[in-house]
Amino acid sequence: MKILPTILLVLLAIVLPDTINAQEDKLLALQTEYQSARQKIEAAAVAEYSNSLSVAGAQLKQKGDLDNYLVLKTEQERLVVEKTVDAGTTNPNSLVASSAKKVIEARNGKIAVLLKQYIGQLDTILKQLMVADKIEDAKAVKAEKDKCNAELAVLASESPQPQAKPEVKKLDEKWISKDATYTVSSLVRNFPPLPSLLTCEGKLYGEGKDLCAFTTSEGDKDAHIIIDLGSLKTITKVYIENRNLNSGIASRAKTLTMWLSETQTFDMDKPIWKATEGQAEWTIPLQKPTKARFIRLGLRESNIFHLKQVKIFGQ
To answer: Are 273 and 257 in contact (CB under 8 A)?
Structure first.
């Protein structure tokens, strides 16, 4: 982008604090600096594009993809002659077009920064001309500045716009398991499962803080419970309270795992959550709201299983 020759001619007659020659030198230096910087950006883009084509071509060679390889070779030959990336975006080959677009996006970003700097410098000269009441000369500089602003606007319109994140509507989270029921994989005499696991009130087994609502038998190699919410619900969070950690046996739940399902059949290879150690409690927010009716909580190893309470939240 060159300053119109008339601009330089009329500015020779400007009477400013600087001498006429000094002002002319300043403008020429500004123009030369801008053109040099822009050429470097263009050359770097061509080099980057050429390298991306070479890398892609090497991969196509290994795959034995002759058709696409020949397209890339043709594009590389065009690039050597024309030394411009822009034509690559119209190539019918998607690999070539996508490579060119990535390079152009980066190049345009750098040109936009350079243009802003150049416009700022032109604006400084424009103000000096206005102060000196050189209106006609100021008009010429303003025309150049407007051209640069127009190019900047085009670059901005061609740049990819950030994708707006879809609005995620927050669910009205409620405790939805208080009226649920559950079954246990094995029973111990005199220790039937208590409803207090889900109601979180009433009788519990144990003394002091060492409490639980159910326990499985010692020989149960697949100890678990299945909670039935009664109908399909949207689950957002699960809270689990273990048998008291200070009892020394809370670590039995170190492999505690959770599965969700709309039916009583669970995909055992796809748990929704796994514990890494025996804790006093776990609060488990789901990565995304999940529809389910049945919740399976169980161990990934052979051990006795017992919990104090479980709360399931959602809608």
So the answer is: yes
